[in-house]
Amino acid sequence: MNTLSFTPIQKRDFSLNINLNASKNWNKGGETKIDRNTAMYLRGGSTQILKEGYPLSAFWSYSFAGLDGSNGKPMFNYVEVPDEEKSKSIDPTTYLVYSGETEPYFTGGLGFSFRYKSLSLNTSFSLLLGSKNACRHLTVIFKEAAV
Question: How far apart are CA 16 and CA 122, in angstroms?
Fold first, then answer.
């Protein structure tokens, strides 16, 4: 993380202070030896590498098949495959789609402090780039979509 703070204006009754900060996350996973299942890929992980070469916080999703023409509900590929037909030796990423990472690759902030005599005003802004949210209620959505 890098931080820069400076005061471009400082008078007896008036001052302005500006703060900037930035951080970059280089996040690529190495080799993994854990047993993985489909649910782990759908959830994503920030404590374990799911697939070599992908970020630590990577997650996958079922591919979107379109909307059902009769009721407008979303349809997804490979959701209805019974668990007993899924082989443990098949890599779930062969039928799931990489959807991104849950942690941002860049964070930054900007803050201003303004003072006039004894009155102070402080503001701060933050920026997060690259993170995505996975729907945590997938089983409910997929069950409703299949009905």
Answer: 10
First and final CA of the chain: distance in angstroms? 49
**What is the distance between the alpha carbons of residues 5 and 121, in angstroms, rounded to a whole number?**
16
C-alpha dihedral sign at 26, 32, 34, 36:
positive
Calpha distance 24→129 (Å, rounded): 10
Give Rg (Cα) of the chain. Answer: 23
Q: How many CB atoms lie within 10 A of CB 74?
A: 14
The predicted-structure confidence for 59-117, as pLDDT tens digits, reads as follows 888 888 889 899 988 888 877 766 666 666 677 777 888 888 888 889 999 999 999 99
